[in-house]
Amino acid sequence: MEIENKLMIDRDALSKKHSVLILDGQVEHSISFVQELGKIDTVVHVAATKECLTFKSTYVSKAIMFSAAYDDKEFMAWVRSLDDKYHYDLIVPVTENMLVVFQQLDEGDVLRKKAFLASPDGIAIALDKTTTTLLAKSLSIPVPHSVLLNKLANVAHSDNYPLVLKTSQSFIERDGKTVYSPVCIASNAEERGQFLEKWLPYCPVQQQEYFQGEGWGVEFLYVSGHCVLHFCHQRIHELPLTGGGSSYRRSANAPKAMLDAGKAILDQLNWHGLAMVEFKMNENGEFVLLEINPRSWGSLPLSVKAGVNFPVEMLNIAVGAGLPQQPTYTVDYYARNFSRDIEWLGANILADHRNKLLLTKNRWFSILEWARPFVGKESWDHFDWTDLAVFRSQLVTFTSRLFSALFGRIGDFFDTVHMWLNHQKNKKQLAASGEVITDVLFVCYGNICRSPVAEYAAKQLSADITYSSTGFHDDVLRKTPENIASIATNLELDLSGHRSCRISKEQVLATDIIVVMDQKNFEDVRQHFPEATNKILMLGLFSRPRALTILDPYALNDAAAADALSDVVNGVKGLVSWCSALK
């Protein structure tokens, strides 16, 4: 297998003193290593699976693309051949995937030493959320109450929502591929069941109580079991809004108990190299440990700007320049990932700020925060006057995405107008035809929530018309989810006997009108049955107030799902009244 695909850049300068290989340069926070090491006259080689932003940096001496579909042993043989040729002082595996590949090396292997990695056992514990939690408990470090789930058949019922669900490892072997498993905050049994069905067949799942608070990270550089550097940041903006990586953060003095907890768990692992210990802290100052991130992190630009230069100090240690002294870094300094925080800003503006599961901020204040660069209290990730090509490329990408989104919104507007006009035209033609409507087909995607509720509600209101429902989901004979069936019962609808079916041409031909719930249903019917476009009506336009879209309650919390099903019933009442008036 050919590992190396293409040499993108080659501008090695023999006059430079030290050399570094950065792996997985397609990950954005590798740019901090490139820029900081390049500034001190280091030869920086970057390997990535695709052309990437990191390659734009003027500090990249050599940029190499390699195949993403690599065999681990052959890949390490390729890295070894690069090291034999260039004699790197430091190798930086940026991603967790790459860390797993290096895990296969013996502890005394020269590549492992150059990669500045902890012991195989230490990394294995850090990568496994369950063993991390058990270790923290043994050290009396507070953690959320957790239960390890191993088999679907043994999963007990739970009434305590919200719950946090996370696979024991972030990257899972699934269907022959290594895939990332995101953390899920399940607000109801249906969301919990979906996550467990998706991931539990491949990996144990840790179920934790939900701890309300904000994310904090304490970053460390260890050498042979001893902490030589630390830094702390608070996440100000997290994306997604339910909690995740920070798009905006501030430097902070680590609360002593939190700093001690981070040191205690890494001391126990006899740590070596970089690590970030992640916490959540509530407004009362109480915190829990969430996990250990045993590699570099996305907020690295903040620590560098605030005065803790992890990349440079790692290289100094690697070349025998001595151990650094812990600096007094700047606190209340902010760093923003420009493009991600624009995305956060949009999400925050549109979000329901009453939802306590969303980490929203005051809309006006979050806009005013953009003034901080003018008072010298904020920097933007990877913006560097000596390396403007990187930020310029970020702006180009962001602008392209912005215009794409803008044109998408314009397209959505015209799609909305088209649906409304199609609805009005079909209503007028049906009324003018003088034909009596005898058959109505309700359509949604899964045929387990909205369309069966519409069918059963219509049957209660009118016995003169045949009502049925269907959907586009390939799996048939599915039951209505328990929480949806319970809400339907409150609406005096019994869905216990309903089983889903998939839409067929026979159904479409036999019915007089097809009533859909949203734009996706509208487009699906048009795409699969274009001859039926003149039969499509929008259920939401029969409701009061009118709405083109009735939300799918499948992934909503119970309160929002109840609202959506009420919209369905209100729309059905308007539809049945309209059909009766045609007689």
UniProtKB/TrEMBL annotation:
Where is each ATP-grasp domain found? Answer: 133-319
Per the Swiss-Prot or TrEMBL record, the active site comprises 444 (nucleophile), 450, 552 (proton donor)
Identify the EC number(s). 3.1.3.48
Which InterPro entries does the entry mention?
A: ATP-grasp (IPR011761), CPAse_ATP-bd (IPR005479), LMW_PTPase (IPR050438), Ptyr_pPase (IPR023485), Ptyr_pPase_sf (IPR036196), Tyr_phospatase_low_mol_wt (IPR017867)
Keyword line: ATP-binding, Hydrolase, Nucleotide-binding, Protein phosphatase
What molecular functions are annotated in GO for this chain? ATP binding; metal ion binding; protein tyrosine phosphatase activity
Q: Catalyzes what? A: O-phospho-L-tyrosyl-[protein] + H2O = L-tyrosyl-[protein] + phosphate
The membrane spanning regions, by residue number, are none
Q: Does the keyword Hydrolase apply?
A: yes
Q: Does the keyword ATP-binding apply?
A: yes
Pfam families reported in the protein's UniProt record: ATPgrasp_Ter (PF15632), LMWPc (PF01451)
State the family named in the UniProt similarity comment for this chain: Belongs to the low molecular weight phosphotyrosine protein phosphatase family.
What name is this protein filed under? protein-tyrosine-phosphatase
Record organism: marine gamma proteobacterium HTCC2143
